[in-house]
Amino acid sequence: MLRHAKSSWDDPTLADVDRPLNGRGLKACSTMAGAMVESGCEFHNIFCSPAKRARSTIENIAAQLTGSDIRWQIDRDLYTFSDQDLLHWCHQLDDDLDQVMLVGHNPAITDFCNRLNRNGDFVANVPTCGYVRLQIESVWSELEDNAASLELLLTPKMLR
Questions:
Q1: Whole-model pTM over 0.90
Q2: Closest Cα to residue 104, out of 136, 139, 140, 129?
Q3: How far apart, in whole angstroms, are the C-alpha atoms of residue 24 and residue 75?
Q4: Which of 26, 33, 35, 112 could pair covalently with 83 via S-S, beta carbons 3.0-4.6 A apart?
Q5: Whole-angstrom Cα distance, residue 21 to residue 116?
Q6: 104-148: per-residue pLDDT in tens?
Q7: Are 28 and 158 in contact (CB under 8 A)?
């Protein structure tokens, strides 16, 4: 899972879904791209919230990885702040998919991570542009609480 990078609040007239990344968010995408690859992220089956800040996050990370053909799909249902919605969304995935990346929002990302994580490594907060990798021990249609182990939490702050 990838939480969108830091967004701008400069224009209070923009709808939440239309907020762009700010300078710090753009820098975080540059920082995280290579580190994600080095950590073993393969960028398969990427599904992204339609929010501008989420789309811009994956676009900017992909732009840093020249020579990589990173593709993603926009899914309206990922514009959510609910871990229950993410669980329901995962239940709809094709059980043949073995790797999936969600690009979305908090508190859904943090709550979903903690909901699935069975090894007790509570994550207080997945920060903006934070990447979490979980190893899931079931098929998507049967995904339930405590069905995964936390393999990695990578944040821009860790890379400073």
A1: yes
A2: 129
A3: 25
A4: 112
A5: 29
A6: 999 999 999 999 999 878 999 999 999 999 999 899 999 999 999
A7: no
